[in-house]
Specification:
heterodimer, A: alpha+beta, 2 helices, 5 strands, elongated, B: alpha+beta, 6-stranded antiparallel sheet, 38% strand
Chain lengths: 138, 133
């Protein structure tokens, strides 16, 4: 089933608050081999994807959306950074679907996730293009 | 840091093994089995376990941070995922090569065009960082 084009423009509920600990940043740096900045108090550039991925997981879990992770390919990812993520941040991600296009059995879903600190302070905007195989092939 | 148009930044080379992908799976929350299960990866038509696209982008981010110094100087950063990075099940894994060239300097902002390759194949498209300088 192709995705409902009416999903474009929809904004989903924010993700549960995520407390960024130094251990989390060090774990992420260790995984990608990044050197620690400020002894692990400043997160690497792509760390906000952890929050954006949480928002995408929430999107996929929505029965009205009908996307399964195994049928999704990550096509593109871009961040507009206001400031790096830091130890002690309590972050939420609010995902909106910007556009939905379907061509040759593939849905192209452009999403934008606004990542904010506890007081609503903007930290990063994460733009992801998700490619979804509409035909149930697996 | 000052940048000039045409400036070639010092190339970076990063080794990745399956063990790193397992760690990244935990650190990122992206548990898609194509990044750790040969069975699932081959069942969806992949040659085998592949790196998370975001793992590869993180390597590009490492290079950007190494060139810029201060992560706070980065205004935007991203790429298209154009080719998968297969990870052999051995100790050596594979290597990602990152090169960067300054393509534009204007109004205190420098644009860095990155080329990220694995085994000579370009794995990211339109990979760019815009940094304050």
């Amino acid at each position: 089933m192709p995705l409902d084009p009416a999903l474009a423009g929809r904004t989903f509920a924010p993700t549960e608050p995520y407390l960024v600990s130094r251990e989390r940043i060090i774990e992420f740096c260790g995984a990608v081999g990044a050197e620690l900045v400020d002894s692990g108090d400043t997160a690497p550039l792509t760390f906000p994807f952890v929050i954006a991925f949480g928002a995408m997981t929430q999107l996929m879990a929505d029965p009205e959306v009908g996307i399964e992770l195994q049928n999704v390919v990550h096509g593109e990812q871009r961040f507009e950074q206001v400031r790096p993520v830091r130890t002690g941040d309590v972050l939420t991600g609010t995902l909106s679907i910007e556009t939905v296009r379907t061509a040759a059995g593939m849905d192209m879903i452009a999403t934008r996730t606004e990542i904010a600190a506890a007081d609503g302070e903007p930290v990063s905007s994460a733009f992801a293009l998700l490619l979804h195989r509409g035909e149930a092939s697996s | 840091m000052s940048f000039e148009v045409g400036q070639q930044l010092e190339p970076r080379s990063y080794r990745v093994t399956r063990s790193d992908l397992i760690r990244y799976t935990g650190a990122s929350g992206d548990r898609n089995p194509i990044h750790w299960s040969e069975r699932v990866a081959t069942s969806v038509g992949l040659p085998g376990v592949i790196a998370h696209g975001m793992y590869t982008l993180a390597l590009a981010g490492r290079a950007v941070t190494s060139w810029v110094g201060d992560p706070a100087a980065v205004e935007s950063f991203g790429a298209r995922f154009t080719n998968p990075v297969p990870l052999p099940d051995d100790h050596d894994g594979t290597v990602g090569e990152v090169v960067g060239v300054v393509s534009k300097v204007e109004s205190g902002l420098a644009t860095i065009d990155l080329t990220v390759t694995n085994d000579g194949v370009k794995v990211l498209g339109m990979c760019k960082a815009v940094v304050r300088c």
